[in-house]
């Protein structure tokens, strides 16, 4: 894959970044208007080119993985919200962390013209799409709705203790997003809740195609 696919992806990234007409043509082929069927499955599942490129985001070959993500990012005119819309925040997080864009924004300036990329079916389902997975999901009941404040605090501390054990064992490295938009490791899990507020992944609300 490194010798056969990586050069092709690299060329696609460069020509789409340099030429608006080529980028628009590739976008219509790779990222066509999202319909109802498209959001009923995960972005990396299915027969479309978008599905197959998203699947490469977890490729074991680093060059292919990075170039596949960069290709779709360029087709989205390096708009974080639009990129998350087509790939899901979980798939997009790796590239966004590398570029310092975990808090949203754009990686580069492109033409101000924006093509509408929503069908009527997508518009009807948009509010029920999970921005993390990029898939439509049934609304789930809040598991804490019937809990008292004491129960919520107890469950929260259980979670903190479990994460602390994983961190001490070297299994995970909790991080928080810094001012530069990149993840920064924390020394203790409780640092994650200091000064934190409600936040949503980029693209969780609104229409990313109305730039």
From TrEMBL:
Residues 192-211 are annotated as: Disordered. InterPro entries: Chaperone_Ric-8_A/B (IPR008376), Gua_nucleotide_exch_fac_Ric8 (IPR019318). It is found in: Cytoplasm, Cell cortex. GO terms for molecular function: G-protein alpha-subunit binding; guanyl-nucleotide exchange factor activity. It holds the Pfam family Ric8. GO terms for biological process: G protein-coupled receptor signaling pathway. Keywords: Chaperone, Cytoplasm, Guanine-nucleotide releasing factor. GO terms for cellular component: cell cortex. Belongs to the synembryn family. PANTHER family: SYNEMBRYN. This is Synembryn-A. It comes from Ridgeia piscesae (Tubeworm).
């Amino acid at each position: 894959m490194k010798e056969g696919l990586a050069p092709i992806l690299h060329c696609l990234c460069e020509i789409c970044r340099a030429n608006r007409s080529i980028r628009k043509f590739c976008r219509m082929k790779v990222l066509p208007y999202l319909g109802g069927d498209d959001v009923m499955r995960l972005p990396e599942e299915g027969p479309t080119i978008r599905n197959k490129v998203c699947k490469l985001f977890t490729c074991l070959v680093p060059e292919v993985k990075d170039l596949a993500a960069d290709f779709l990012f360029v087709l989205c005119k390096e708009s974080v919200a639009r990129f998350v819309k087509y790939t899901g925040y979980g798939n997009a997080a790796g590239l966004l962390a590398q570029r310092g864009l975990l808090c949203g924004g754009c990686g580069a300036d492109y033409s101000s013209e924006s093509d509408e990329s929503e069908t009527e079916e997508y518009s009807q389902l948009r509010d029920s799409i999970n921005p993390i997975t990029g898939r439509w999901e049934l609304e789930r009941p809040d598991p804490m709705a019937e809990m008292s404040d004491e129960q919520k605090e107890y469950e929260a501390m259980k979670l903190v203790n479990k994460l602390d054990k994983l961190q001490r064992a070297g299994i995970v490295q909790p991080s928080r997003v810094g001012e530069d938009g990149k993840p920064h490791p924390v020394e203790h899990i409780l640092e994650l809740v200091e000064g934190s507020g409600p936040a949503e992944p980029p693209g969780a609300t609104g229409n990313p195609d109305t730039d």
